[in-house]
Design a protein that fits this description.
InterPro entries: Glyco_hydro/deAcase_b/a-brl (IPR011330), NODB_dom (IPR002509), Polysacch_Deacetylase (IPR051398). This is Chitin deacetylase. Keywords: Signal. It holds the Pfam family Polysacc_deac_1. By secondary structure, the chain is an alpha/beta fold. It has a single domain, classed as Glycoside hydrolase/deacetylase (TIM Barrel, Alpha-Beta Barrel), CATH 3.20.20.370. Helix content is 39%, strand content 19%. Strands 2, 3, 6, 7, 8, 10, 11 and 12 form an 8-stranded parallel sheet that branches. A two-stranded antiparallel ribbon has the order 1-9. Strands 4-5 form a two-stranded antiparallel sheet. α2 links the parallel β2 and β3. α2 packs parallel to α3. The radius of gyration is 17 Å and the shape is globular. It starts with a helix and ends in a 5-residue tail after the last helix. Bound molecules: zinc ion (ZN). The site of zinc ion has 5 residues, from loops.
Length: 257
């Protein structure tokens, strides 16, 4: 448990990180974009989560911590290697979520690099190209050093909370709305979706298990499918994170004179 001096140091470090190592992606596409992401990757996310997207012709991003493979989390089974291979074969994207599902804000640089190397090796075994990797901070816990390291290693890094992106996104601190059974964010999905449509922004959502009943960090298959259908009905593109960045980059550069 950090003492109050280390807590203060962490707060300052995170505040500094908000303004450092930014990679700004201007949002100038003709329509809004919504990305559905799954953290830790419980087995139910591989099945019901993937299906909720696939039924609508869409795909998602699954942030994998290799150390949770074949393990239990919150009493629920996590993914197997076979399930991750099935996701890739169906066109979903796998991202990195550290290997041990550990807070990255309190690790030394060497410890963090080791965690990330280990997970990159795990994902490479499944055929994931390290150059295409996107990252999600476990528990959303980032700080100055972690952002410095992750900004060099990953195409994007996602924190937790913060709503939707309007006008621009910082690829090294992407925000997310939590689609959890227990409501945790100030705004709700429908409001954020409407704003994403209006501002042609980029809304990233995340959840964990996808089952009925879900854990407090998960969502039911029905509600998830409704959220996907609502994004498409509102005219948004539903794209996993790499595909979303590719799509948004096409519009980001100023047109040639
Ligand atoms: Zn996590």
């Amino acid at each position: 448990m950090p003492d109050s001096a280390s807590k203060l140091a962490l707060r300052i470090s995170r505040r500094l990180a908000q303004h450092a190592f930014k990679e700004i992606l201007p949002l100038r596409a003709d329509v809004g974009v919504v990305s559905f992401t799954f953290d830790d990757v419980p087995a139910s996310a591989c099945v019901a989560g993937a299906q909720a997207l696939e039924r609508h012709g869409a795909r998602g991003t699954f942030y994998v911590a290799g150390g949770l493979t074949d393990a239990l989390e919150e009493g629920k089974p996590c993914h197997s290697r076979e399930q991750l291979r099935t996701l890739l074969a169906a066109g979903h994207e796998l991202g990195c979520h550290s290997y041990s599902h550990i807070r990255c804000d309190t690790l030394t640089a060497a410890e963090l690099e080791q965690e990330l190397d280990r997970n990159a090796a795990f994902l490479a075994e499944l055929g994931v190209d390290p150059l295409t990797l996107n990252f999600a901070y476990p528990f959303g816990a980032y700080a100055y050093n972690a952002k410095r390291i992750c900004s060099k290693r990953f195409r994007s890094s996602r924190i937790t909370g913060g709503g939707t992106h309007e006008d621009y996104a910082d690829l090294n601190a992407l925000k997310t709305h939590r689609l959890y059974d227990v409501h945790v964010d100030a705004e709700n999905y429908d409001t954020l979706l409407q704003r994403t449509v209006r501002r042609k922004g980029w809304l990233i959502v995340n959840t964990h298990d996808v089952e009925d009943p879900p854990s407090r960090y998960g969502f039911t298959p029905e509600r998830l499918e409704q959220a996907v259908a609502a994004a498409l009905a509102a005219g948004c593109k539903v794209l996993p994170v790499n595909a979303a960045i590719d799509y948004l980059l096409q519009y980001a550069a100023p047109a040639d004179a």
